[in-house]
Protein: TetR/AcrR family transcriptional regulator
Organism: Streptomyces chilikensis
Amino acid sequence: MVVVVRTTKRLPRAERERQMMDAAVQVFGRRGYRGASMDEVAELAGVSKPLVYLYLKSKEDLFTACIRREAQALTRAVRAGVRRDLPPDRQLWEGLRAFFRHTADHPDGWTVLHVQARTHGEPFAAEVAALRAELVSFVTQLTVVAARAAHRDPDLPEREVAGLAEALVGAAESLAAWANATEGVCAREAAATLMNFAWAGLDNLMAGRPWTPPADQD
């Protein structure tokens, strides 16, 4: 059910803009970019449509602002969830748990990032690509530190684990979409599922036991 916010007092600009952005994320997440209208955003925010245009200019600008805000919120949540004083497996677990908790708590924002922004071309897809690159870089660094410590080799190249981090982020994205669409799947369960899938591979890599393809195949 869509809840319309009615306001009767003058709000500071930042608060008013946040209110409109909250409404826009909900509308874009549930209607899609093409199905969303500035009229509905204004109604949901409890403001006039001219005020939405005054603050956020155009539908494209509004959608881009929503993507950026939700991307920043997600990366902040993941980074904040990781304590560097924990063992490597706990660091990865806490990062995954923070990711799935945030995507579960903000399903419209996740839909904007994972579905809507990716299916409407540039420049929206580029915004999501930047988010993904940041998450991959963060996961790569977590894994590199753990692998170097396990090997006692400070020069172990990032390439050894970068592909694994890329795959892990992709799996997390798909699993978050599934978890949000599947009744009864909580953030902890989703994180545990991916942790069980990923940590065995990471553990083998750190211990110097990577799986290798047959020698007679490309």
In short: The chain has nine helices and no strands. The two ends are 54 Å apart (CA to CA).
